[in-house]
Amino acid sequence: MSRGGRSTLPLRTKVFYAILKLFDFFGGKIMTFFASLLGSEFQGTFLMFAAGGQEKISFGIYDIAASLTIPGWLVIITLMIMTVYLIAVGIERWLTYNKAKAQSRQYAPKVAQALKNSNIDEAISISDKHKDSHLAMVVSSGLKEFSAHQGNSEITADEMEASKRALDRAIAVKTAELKRGLSGLATVGSTAPFVGLFGTVVGIIGAFVALAQAENAGIGAVGAAIAEALVATAFGIAVAVPAVWLFNYFTNKVTSFGVEMENSASELVDYFIRQRTKRLNG
Question: Helix 134-147 and helix 157-178: axis angle, to 10°?
Answer without folding.
Answer: 160
